[in-house]
Amino acid sequence: MMSTTIENPNYAYPARSKRGPSFEKAGWIFMRASGVVLVVLIFGHLAYNLIWTPGGISAIDFGFVGGKLADPFWRWWDVTMLWLAILHGSNGMRTIVNDYVHKPRIRQIALGAIAVAAAILILLGTLITFTFDPCPPTADPSLLPSFCADL
Ligand code: HEM
């Protein structure tokens, strides 16, 4: 039987050693593990918001989101979905850049931009998830949703 050996397509990072822990292998496993968890988180999120909530998409407004973020269960659900989606998405983009961007300087800039964007999104997303207050006590009452008056 004839066999063909193809060149390692990912020449951005030639394999250094076959022994010891490998970041690339960890990344490969992470993509699969986070993919499985994301299926549960994303479809759970969609089912709850669009199917199990009476009124479906028309019921989604500021009060609905405010109410969800007041519940620790949904805060942790949302923040886990946020972290996994951003880490999974940015690690996937890293793979694409390593596969297709061959100029070292451009690759460095692209990978840096992905890392900075991921860090900012994770930081701001986590901050807002845990600090969101739909009725801030010092705000102008005319700018607040009507349900704040009842609190
Ligand atoms: C529904 C849940 C998801 C599952 C099951 C899933 C699964 C996967 C798997 C297994 C890979 C690796 C493919 C490979 O190495 O050849 C991958 C790659 C990737 N994923 Fe996801 N993913 C999900 C959601 C997402 C989300 C929400 C994003 C964006 C934020 C995303 C962005 C990416 C990107 C950019 C890649 C790299 C594509 C490539 O290597 O060609 N995925 N996904």
UniProtKB/TrEMBL annotation:
<keyword id="KW-0349">Heme</keyword>
<dbReference type="Pfam" id="PF01127">
    <property type="entry name" value="Sdh_cyt"/>
</dbReference>
<feature type="transmembrane region" description="Helical">
    <location>
        <begin position="76"/>
        <end position="97"/>
    </location>
</feature>
<keyword id="KW-0812">Transmembrane</keyword>
<keyword id="KW-0479">Metal-binding</keyword>
<protein>
    <recommendedName>
        <fullName>Succinate dehydrogenase</fullName>
    </recommendedName>
</protein>
<dbReference type="InterPro" id="IPR034804">
    <property type="entry name" value="SQR/QFR_C/D"/>
</dbReference>
<keyword id="KW-0472">Membrane</keyword>
<keyword id="KW-0408">Iron</keyword>
<dbReference type="GO" id="GO:0016020">
    <property type="term" value="C:membrane"/>
</dbReference>
<dbReference type="GO" id="GO:0046872">
    <property type="term" value="F:metal ion binding"/>
</dbReference>
<keyword id="KW-1133">Transmembrane helix</keyword>
<dbReference type="InterPro" id="IPR000701">
    <property type="entry name" value="SuccDH_FuR_B_TM-su"/>
</dbReference>
<feature type="transmembrane region" description="Helical">
    <location>
        <begin position="109"/>
        <end position="132"/>
    </location>
</feature>
<feature type="transmembrane region" description="Helical">
    <location>
        <begin position="26"/>
        <end position="48"/>
    </location>
</feature>
